[in-house]
Each structure stands twice: as C-alpha cells, then as structure tokens.
Amino acid sequence: MSILFRQLFDYETWTYTYLVACPHTGEAILIDTVREQVERDLGLVKELGLKLKYVLDTHVHADHVTASGLLRERTSALVGVGKPGGVACADLQLEDGQELSYGRHVLRVIATPGHTNTCMSFYTEGRVFTGDVLFVRDCGRTDFQEGSNEKMFESVTVKLFGLPEETMVYPGHDYKGHMASSIGEEKRLNPKLGGGKTFEEFRAKMAEMKLGPPKKLHIAVPANLKCGLE
Ligand SMILES: [Fe+2]
To answer: Is this structure's pTM higher than 0.85?
Structure first.
C-alpha cells in the first residue's frame, strides 16, 4: 500500500522537510519543518486536500527554527519531539518503539541518539527519516548538544543498519546535492560508518572533522525548545 510522499528543501539552511500521508484518508505527517517555510508547507497540505495530524522533529535543531508551533496554531496537528529534549510545549514526548498512525499507515519511532541525545529516526513504509544522524555518505556531528560518538556508532551500525537493506534513507540535510540513499548503500559505502568500520576507526574519522558552531545555534535551540514560537 503506497503512501503520498514529498521531499521539500529549504535553501537557507539546507534542510529537508518531509510530508507523508495516507492517500485514502488524507491524514498527514510533516517531519522537520522550517519556520520560514510555513506558508509553503501549509499551502501544499491544503492543495493536496490533506489533514495534518502530526508535526514531528527528529531532534531539537541547532541550525534552523521549527515551524511546529505555528503549524499547530493553524491546523489541529499535534507536535512531537523526542522525550530527552525536554520540549515542554510538545504534545507528544516521543520514545523508542512508539507508533503513530496516519490513516491506514503507521510511523515507528526509533531512538537514534548520537548527534544529540534527543535524536529520533522515523520509519514508515520502506522509508527511514534519519534527521542529523545518518546522512548520505556521512553522519551528523557529535561535538555539541550532548553528542556522543559511542551512541552515534551504536545508533547507526546497530539500529539503522539493522533495517532491511532496501529501506530508503531520507536525511535531515544534505550539503552536496544528494537527496536520498538506502540502508544497503550506506552500510557498504558510508565513509565514516560503512564497510564494517570499527568504533576506533569511526572515532578517528570524527576527530578529523573541523567544524565551527552552527550559525543559528544560539537562536535556534532556545526557539525550538518553545516549538519555534519565540
Ligand atoms: Fe541537528
């Protein structure tokens, strides 16, 4: 049974937003929205005749502000974020194994800490939305927001790589123009975590990364703790 699926992009922050919906009932879920794109997302939901049921964030983002609070004000959607994030304004404190239904379909929450301690991946109908944990041929940074190399390694190599190889991977961002991958492809080809890398090899690769703080860190994190309504 196929779902309605759209991948949307924010040029300013390189963020992918995803829409999944049940074509029979019109119930829909938005994943990782961007506040500046609220009209685009609401417009698409309306054009397609969908009913927005949930607005989910894979984690408390440091690089953009979520549109979750605005979308909740303007629809009847419920906001969901991982429980460890302590986002008090969220209606759903998401936990590992939790299942959210939309029409005839189910989205399953998979706790994948590592980039932050809040990170959740979302699996539905052969697709996994990996936020800033697993990227196409890369993974998210682990050097702030309770990031952890140990947790990242386990989340990716055990939990995500344990999904069926044909599962399509949809990341939270991409900086090189890639849009999607598959679990089998990343298991073989991911330069940090694929090809049977040991934890020591992974840690050495992460130590080579030299990244400045995200541009919006001090704006985005406090705003996202208030569902973007700050
Ligand atoms: Fe992030």
So the answer is: yes
